[in-house]
Design brief:
The structure holds three protein chains of three kinds. By secondary structure, chain B is mainly α. In chain B, 59% of the residues lie in helices and 1% in strands. Chain B has two domains: 18-174, no CATH class; 176-330, no CATH class. In chain C, a hairpin with a 6-residue loop joins strand 15 and strand 16. Classes of the chains: A mainly alpha, B mainly alpha, C alpha/beta. Chain C: Residues 441-566, 626-650 are annotated as: Disordered.
Chain lengths: 210, 345, 692
C-alpha cells in the first residue's frame, strides 16, 4: 500500500493517469446512472412523426394517409413529401429526426398559401356517393340519390373528393382571412419602416442584381 | 400623404442606443481626468489612438459585410469599446499594442459574432486578455504615478512619442501596488506601505483617486438609469467580503484590506463600465446579482491566489461564459404566476 | 386611507391630456350616413336583423347577438338602411368587413323606450338581460361584452370586490376623465346598479392622481356611499385591468385566469355610464364619449358621438389638417392602432381619435440591434424578459417563447417605448402569439382529423372482414354445388379462357374501387392521372382529356336514360340533364381548342387498349393455326425437338455464365438444364419410336 503511494507520489505521470481514469470512471458511472434513472419513455418515433404531420390524409405523399407516411419516414423515407404541411412540417420533422431540412419535393405538389375546404355546389349534386367513399375523414354527408354536403369544420382540404365527382360539382375554396383571424406578421427585414439591422441588406442586393 | 399603417406603440421614449453610448463615454471622464492627473497624458493618447483604430476597423468590417456605414458608425459602440480598452491598457503603451488589441476586439470580439448585440464576450476585455497573454511585458509596465505637474512628468508630446516611437523615449515605470502586494512575502502590510512610494492613503498612490473617479462616473450613470445597481453593488460587496475575510490585519501573507481592493487596479472601472456591459452579461435582475457577485469573488481569487496582478478581464470573460446559464435559472416571476414558476390558480 | 400597491415596471410618457380638456364635451351631431360594423366587440359578430330599404328608428335593433359572447347593435339615429355590405372598419388590418349602412333622415326619432322604475325590484337575471340587450360592450378599449363579465359563473366563486376603472392611463385620451367630471352623479348611480347586481363586499373606484377635477366630482357624488375612490400615482399602464387590480388590492390575477377567480369584477367608467343610461332611461348603447386630439386637429376636445359616425365627420368638426398628419390612430399612442381610411366609423370601443403632427409623433427610426440593455425588462408591467422573447420570436422558437410566458404579455407597449434601439417589440409578440395560436389550432384540427381517419379506417376494415366472411360462405356453397354437379367436361377452349381473363382484368382495372379502399383507389387514380399527364405531350393530353370527357358524357347520358326509365325525381333528371349539357359543351370547346391547335382528334396510331390487343393477337394466332395445314405428328415432334434443343442450348449457355460469375442461380439453372435434357431425350425417343 505504502509502496504504491510512494510510486504514485514519485511519478506524477502515474498520478495524472490515475486521476484521469478515476474521473472517467466517476463520470461514466454518473452518466450511466442518469441514463437509467431519467430515461424518457417516449412515443415510438412513428407516433411522434404522425403527430407532426397535418393529418389531411390527402395521399399526396404517395402513401394512403398520414400514418403510413409517418411509418415510412421512420423507415427512412424522405421528409419533404407533404405539401399540405409545407416548410413548417419539414422543419419540425427535421428537428425531430435531427436531419437537414430539405425543400419540399415539387413532384408531390406545392404548398398552398391558405388552407382550403371542399364545397359541393348542391344544385348540381346528383347524389352518387362517390365523394363520400373517397373522403378519408368522413366529412361528407349524404346518401345515394340524395344531395351531399361537406361538413366544413371536418374537411381537411385533401382534394380527394374532387376527382371522383362525375358532375364536377365540388370546388376547393380557400379560407379567407377575416377580422377574427387576421394578425400582424413578424417584422420583416425588408420592411422600409423597420430595418432589422443585422440582416443582409436585401434591397441593395436586388439593385445589384438588376 | 398616405396614412401609415404600423403597429403600436406609436410613442417612443427619448432614449436611443447612440445616446446610451455617448452617456457612457461621458461618464468615463472623471476617471480619465484622475488618470491623466497621476499618470500623465499617456491614457489620452491611448484612447484617441484606440478610437481611431476602432472606427477604422468598424468601417472596414461594415464595408465587407455590406452594411450602411453611417447608420452603424452612428451608434458609437465602437468608440465605447475603444475607450474602455484605452483606459484599461497601460499608459505610454506602444501604438502597435493598442492597434492589435483594438482590432482584435472589434473584428473578432464583436463582428465575427454578428456585430453589436450579438457578441457573447465583452469585446474590450477580449482584446485586453489577448494582449495580456501575448505581450505580458508591455502589459504590466505601468507609468509611475508622478503627477502631471511634477518635474519630470511626461507631457503630451512625450506621450505621443512614447506611443508612436517607443524606442525614442524612456518613461519612468514602477510596479503597481497590486503587483507589489502579490510579490511581497516577507513584510507586514504596514511596513510595505511605508517602504514603497507607490502606496497612498488607502491603496496605490493615484490609483485610489482613479477609482474614485470611476465610482463618480458610475454613480452618475446609475442616476441616469443607464443600468441597474444590481451587478456593480454585488460585485463590490463580494470583493469587500472576501477581502475582509482574508485580511488577517496585515500579515505578510495578507491579501490586502477591503479598502485596498476596492480602490486598486480596475475595481471601480470594472464595476461600473465593464460588467455593466449589457450584451454579454446576465439579463434579469436576479441574474445580475449572481453575475456581479461571482465576478467580485473571481477578482479577489485571481488577484490573491492567481498568476496575474489584476484579474478584472479574466473574471469578466469567465462570467460571460456563464451568463446564459445564469439567465436560464433566474427568469423573473411573471405577473400572475406563482413562485414555483408554474401558473398559480 | 387605502394601501396602494406598486406594480413592476411602467413608464411615464408625456401625458398630453390638457389639450382636449380645455373645453367641456359637445355633441357631434348627426352625420348624413352612418356605418355599423357587425363586429365591434370581442366575440362572434352580430347578425343583421334589418334589410336594405327598411326604415329604422333611433334605438331600434339592427343586429342581434349571435351566441353567448356577442352583443347586439342598435341604430343611433332614425333613417333608412341603404346597404349591408363590406366597408372599411376601424381595425389594424385595414380590411373591409360587413357593415350596416344607415342614411339618416335628420329627424332623430326615438323608438319607444322606457327605463326601469326601480331596478332593485328586478331579478338579477332580468337586469343582466337588460344590459345584454342594450348592446353594452366594454368601452375602455377591449370591447368585451359587459353582461358576460357581470354574469359571473358561480363556479368561479363569489365576487367580493367591484372595481371601477377610471384610470385612463394612456396619454392623450380624456374621454373617461371628462365623463367623470361631467357625469359623476350618473356614474355613481350606475355603480349602485352594479352593486345591486353583483353584491360585492367592497366597491372601489381606481383613478390616477392626474385627474384632480374628476376626483373631486366623484368624491362629491359618492359622499355618504360605500364607494371608495382610490387615488394612486400616475404611471402607464396602471389602467390595465390586471395592473389596476394589483395596485388597489395587491393581488395578482392568475395567469390564464380571470379577475373573477380572485373575487373581483372590473368595469370601465364609460361602461358604467352606458349601463346607467340603459337601466334608467331604457336607451341602448348608441353613443359614446370620444376624444379627438393631436396637434393636427385645431380644436381638440371630447365629443358625444353617435356610434357609426364616420371619423372624417369628427375630424372635420375638430378642424383636422390632413396635410400635417402622417398617421391617424384610434386609441392612444401606446395601444391604439392606425387608421388608413378616415371614413371608418366610430364604434363602441373608440375612446380616442388621435391625429398628431409629424413633429409630435415622428415616424419610427429604423431598428438597431438589441444590446440587451434590459430597459424593456425594467419597464415591463408583467415582469417578463422582453429582450429574451425578442430573440426567440426572431428565431421562431415558440416553445421557448411560451416558457418565457409570452401569453402573459398585455401588449402595453412599454418595452417598445423605452427600447433605445427602436425595435418594434410588440409587433414581434403579437405575431408570435398569433402564430402559436394558429399552430395550436392546426394541431387540434389535425388531431381531430387523425381520429376521424382512424375511425373510418377501422370501419372499412370491419366491413371488408364481414364481406370476406360472406364471400367465404358463398364460395364454400358454390364448391359444394360444383362437387354435386360432379365434374362435367371442364375442358374449355384455352383461347376463350384467355379472352375471359383479359376481360376480367380490364374490368378490374376500370373499377378497382369495388374491391380496394376507395380512398386508396382515388389516390392511385389521381397519381396515375398526374403521372400520365406529366409524361404526355400537350397534344396527347388534350386528346386524352377529350376522350375522358366523351366517356363521362356517355356515362351521364346512360345514367339519364336510366333514371328517366326508373322514374327518378325531376330534380335529379334536371341535374343530370344539366351535367350532360355541360359536358357536351365542354367536349365542343375541347374539340374546338384542338382544332385551333391543328391537332387531329385521332392520333396516327390509335393507342390500343393492351388487353384488347392481347385478345386480338390471340384470336389471330388461333385463326392462323386453323388456316395452316395440319402438321403431321412427326413434323410436330420434330418441331418440338427443335424448340427443346434451342432451349437447352440457351440454358446451358446461361449456366456456364452463371458458373463463371459464381452466381446463386447456378443450382436452379442446373436443374433446368437437367430437365431439358430429359425432355430432349424423351422427345428423341418418341420420334425414333414414330419413325420405326
Amino acid at each position: 500500500m505504502t509502496a504504491m503511494l510512494e510510486l504514485v507520489a514519485q511519478n506524477p505521470f502515474i498520478a495524472a493517469l490515475l486521476a484521469l481514469v478515476g474521473l472517467g470512471l466517476v463520470f461514466g458511472a454518473l452518466l450511466g446512472y442518469a441514463a437509467v434513472k431519467f430515461r424518457t419513455e417516449g412515443n415510438p418515433i412513428s407516433e411522434q412523426i404522425n403527430a407532426i404531420l397535418p393529418q389531411t390524409q390527402c395521399g399526396q405523399c404517395g402513401y394512403p394517409g398520414c400514418r403510413p407516411y409517418a411509418e415510412a419516414i421512420a423507415d427512412g423515407e424522405a421528409i419533404n413529401r407533404c405539401p399540405p404541411g409545407g416548410e413548417g412540417t419539414i422543419a419540425q420533422l427535421a428537428d425531430l429526426l435531427d436531419v437537414e431540412a430539405i425543400p419540399l419535393d415539387a413532384e408531390h405538389g406545392e404548398e398552398k398559401a391558405a388552407a382550403s375546404v371542399a364545397f359541393i355546389r348542391e344544385d348540381e349534386c346528383i347524389g352518387c356517393t362517390k365523394c363520400i367513399q373517397a373522403c378519408p375523414v368522413d366529412a361528407i354527408l349524404g346518401a345515394a340519390k340524395q344531395m351531399h354536403t361537406v361538413i366544413a369544420s371536418e374537411c381537411t382540404g385533401c382534394d380527394l373528393c374532387v376527382e371522383p365527382c362525375p358532375v364536377d360539382c365540388i370546388d376547393m375554396i380557400s379560407e379567407e382571412v377575416t377580422l377574427q383571424t387576421w394578425h400582424w406578421e413578424l417584422p420583416s427585414p425588408t420592411d422600409p419602416l423597420i430595418i432589422a439591422s443585422d440582416r443582409d441588406d436585401m434591397s441593395s442586393d436586388k439593385e445589384r442584381a438588376a | 400623404m398616405a396614412l401609415m399603417r404600423i403597429t403600436s406603440p406609436h410613442a417612443h421614449g427619448p432614449l436611443s442606443t447612440a445616446m446610451v453610448m455617448r452617456t457612457v463615454l461621458l461618464a468615463t471622464l472623471p476617471g480619465i481626468v484622475a488618470l491623466v492627473h497621476f499618470f500623465g497624458f499617456g491614457v489620452v493618447v491611448n484612447i484617441l489612438w484606440a478610437c481611431l483604430v476602432a472606427v477604422g476597423c468598424e468601417a472596414l468590417v461594415l464595408k465587407l459585410r455590406k452594411r450602411p456605414l453611417g447608420f452603424y458608425l452612428n451608434d458609437a459602440s465602437a468608440l465605447v469599446t475603444a475607450t474602455l480598452l484605452g483606459i484599461a491598457l497601460p499608459p505610454y503603451a506602444p501604438w502597435w499594442l493598442i492597434a492589435v488589441g483594438v482590432s482584435f476586439a472589434i473584428i473578432i470580439g464583436k463582428h465575427l459574432y454578428g456585430g453589436m448585440g450579438y457578441n457573447p464576450f465583452n469585446p474590450a476585455m477580449l482584446g485586453y486578455v489577448v494582449l495580456l497573454i501575448s505581450f505580458p511585458l508591455e502589459m504590466t509596465t505601468w507609468g509611475a504615478p508622478l503627477g502631471i505637474n511634477q518635474v519630470g512628468a511626461p507631457g503630451l508630446l512625450t506621450a505621443l512619442q512614447a506611443c508612436f516611437m517607443p524606442a525614442s523615449v524612456d518613461i519612468a515605470t514602477m510596479a503597481t501596488p497590486l503587483d507589489l502586494l502579490k510579490q511581497n512575502d516577507s513584510l507586514l502590510i504596514a511596513n510595505l506601505w511605508t517602504q514603497q512610494p507607490v502606496f497612498g492613503r488607502w491603496a496605490g498612490l493615484g490609483w485610489e483617486w482613479v477609482n474614485i473617479g470611476f465610482l463618480a462616473g458610475g454613480a452618475w450613470l446609475l442616476y441616469k438609469r443607464i443600468f441597474t445597481w444590481h451587478a456593480p453593488v454585488t460585485m463590490l460587496a463580494s470583493l469587500t467580503l472576501l477581502a475582509a475575510i482574508f485580511y488577517d490585519s496585515g500579515s505578510s501573507a495578507s491579501g490586502g484590506s477591503p479598502a485596498f481592493h476596492l480602490l486598486s487596479g480596475g475595481t471601480m472601472f470594472a464595476a461600473f463600465f465593464i460588467i455593466t456591459d449589457p450584451v454579454s452579461s446576465a439579463v434579469s435582475n436576479r441574474g445580475k446579482l449572481i453575475y456581479g457577485a461571482a465576478i467580485g469573488a473571481l477578482i479577489y481569487i485571481i488577484r490573491v491566489w492567481g498568476n496575474y496582478p489584476d484579474a478584472v478581464a479574466f473574471a469578466v470573460l469567465l462570467m460571460n461564459f456563464v451568463a446564459p446559464f445564469i439567465d436560464h435559472y433566474t427568469q423573473p416571476r411573471t405577473y400572475g404566476h406563482s413562485k414555483g414558476g408554474g401558473r398559480s390558480s | 386611507m387605502r394601501k396602494i400597491y406598486d406594480i413592476h415596471g411602467g413608464i411615464h410618457p408625456l401625458e398630453n391630456k390638457h389639450q382636449s380638456l380645455q373645453v367641456s364635451s359637445t355633441p357631434a351631431g348627426i352625420p348624413p350616413q352612418l356605418f355599423y360594423p357587425l363586429s365591434q366587440h370581442i366575440g362572434a359578430p352580430a347578425k343583421a336583423v334589418v334589410s336594405v330599404g327598411q326604415k329604422v328608428l333611433k334605438g331600434e335593433l339592427l343586429a342581434a347577438a349571435d351566441g353567448f359572447i356577442s352583443v347586439p347593435i342598435h341604430a343611433s339615429t332614425s333613417g333608412v338602411i341603404t346597404a349591408i355590405e363590406p366597408r372599411p372598419v376601424p381595425h389594424p388590418s385595414a380590411m373591409p368587413a360587413p357593415c350596416i349602412v344607415l342614411d339618416s333622415d335628420g329627424l332623430d326619432t326615438w323608438i319607444e323606450h322606457s327605463g326601469v322604475e326601480d331596478y332593485t325590484q328586478l331579478e338579477r337575471s332580468a337586469l343582466l338581460q337588460l344590459i345584454r340587450d342594450s348592446g353594452i360592450a366594454g368601452m375602455g378599449g377591449a370591447g368585451f361584452p359587459a353582461a358576460v363579465k357581470l354574469g359571473v359563473n358561480p363556479e368561479r366563486g363569489r365576487i367580493n370586490t367591484l372595481l371601477i376603472n377610471g384610470t385612463e392611463c394612456e396619454p392623450y385620451i380624456t374621454a373617461d376623465d371628462i365623463l367623470m367630471r361631467e357625469q359623476a352623479e350618473a356614474i355613481i348611480a350606475g355603480i349602485h346598479i352594479l352593486t345591486h347586481l353583483v353584491e360585492p363586499t367592497e366597491i372601489l373606484l381606481g383613478i390616477e392622481d392626474n385627474k384632480p377635477e374628476a376626483i373631486a366630482a366623484l368624491r362629491a357624488a359618492a359622499a355618504g356611499t360605500a364607494i371608495d375612490i382610490v387615488v394612486f400615482p400616475t404611471k402607464y399602464p396602471s389602467g390595465g385591468e390586471k395592473q389596476l387590480i394589483e395596485i388597489v388590492t395587491g393581488k395578482q390575477v392568475p395567469s390564464g385566469g380571470l379577475p373573477a377567480d380572485i373575487g373581483i369584477v372590473c368595469q370601465n367608467v364609460g361602461t358604467i355610464y352606458a349601463i346607467y343610461r340603459a337601466v334608467t332611461y331604457g336607451e341602448p348603447l348608441i353613443s359614446r364619449m370620444t376624444t379627438v386630439t393631436g396637434n393636427a386637429a385645431a380644436h381638440p376636445r371630447n365629443y358625444e358621438v353617435l356610434l357609426g359616425t364616420p371619423m372624417s365627420w369628427l375630424l372635420d368638426l375638430a378642424g383636422y389638417d390632413a396635410k400635417r398628419n402622417q398617421r391617424l390612430m384610434m386609441g392612444g399612442p401606446m395601444m391604439g392602432f392606425t387608421i388608413t381610411d378616415p371614413s371608418v366609423p366610430v364604434v363602441k370601443t373608440t375612446n380616442c381619435l388621435l391625429a398628431p403632427t409629424v413633429e409630435e409623433l415622428p415616424a419610427p427610426d429604423p431598428a438597431q440591434a438589441c444590446i440587451r440593455c434590459g430597459m424593456c425588462a425594467e419597464a415591463c408591467p408583467a415582469s417578463l424578459l422582453p429582450q429574451q422573447m425578442y430573440w426567440f420570436a426572431q428565431g421562431k422558437e415558440f416553445e421557448k417563447l411560451e416558457a418565457h410566458n409570452l401569453f402573459d404579455c398585455i401588449e402595453c407597449g412599454a418595452c417598445s417605448y423605452v427600447c433605445p434601439s427602436n425595435i418594434p417589440l410588440v409587433q414581434y409578440y403579437r405575431a408570435a402569439k398569433a402564430e402559436i395560436v394558429q399552430m395550436r389550432n392546426d394541431h387540434a384540427k389535425s388531431e381531430h382529423s387523425r381520429t376521424r381517419f382512424e375511425a373510418r379506417q377501422e370501419r372499412l376494415d370491419r366491413e371488408a372482414a364481414e364481406k370476406e366472411a360472406q364471400r367465404a360462405t358463398r364460395k364454400a356453397a358454390a364448391e359444394q354445388r360444383a362437387r354435386d354437379a360432379a365434374a362435367g367436361d371442364g375442358v374449355e377452349d384455352p383461347v376463350q379462357a384467355a379472352i375471359a381473363r383479359a376481360k376480367a382484368k380490364k374490368a378490374g382495372q376500370a373499377e378497382p374501387a369495388a374491391s380496394a379502399d376507395p380512398a386508396q383507389a382515388a389516390i392511385e387514380k389521381a397519381k396515375a392521372t398526374r403521372a400520365a399527364s406529366a409524361d404526355l405531350a400537350p397534344e396527347d393530353k388534350a386528346r386524352q382529356d377529350l376522350q375522358k370527357l366523351r366517356e363521362r358524357a356517355e356515362k351521364s347520358r346512360a345514367r339519364l336514360t336510366e333514371s328517366r326509365e326508373a322514374g327518378a325525381q325531376d330534380k335529379v333528371i334536371e341535374a343530370l340533364d344539366a351535367s350532360v349539357l355541360k359536358l357536351d359543351e365542354k367536349i365542343a370547346t375541347a374539340v374546338a381548342a384542338m382544332a385551333d391547335q391543328g391537332w387531329s382528334e385521332n392520333p396516327q396510331q390509335a393507342p390500343a387498349d393492351p388487353a384488347q390487343a392481347a385478345i386480338e393477337r390471340a384470336l389471330a394466332k388461333r385463326a392462323a393455326q386453323a388456316a395452316a395445314p395440319a402438321l403431321s405428328p412427326r413434323e410436330q415432334l420434330q418441331k418440338n425437338l427443335q424448340s427443346v434443343e434451342k432451349s437447352l442450348q440457351k440454358a446451358t449457355a446461361k449456366l456456364a455464365e452463371a458458373e463463371q460469375e459464381n452466381s446463386d442461380k447456378v443450382e436452379v439453372l442446373q436443374q433446368s438444364v437437367q430437365k431439358l435434357t430429359t425432355k430432349q431425350s424423351q422427345v428423341q425417343a418418341e420420334l425414333t419410336a414414330l419413325e420405326d
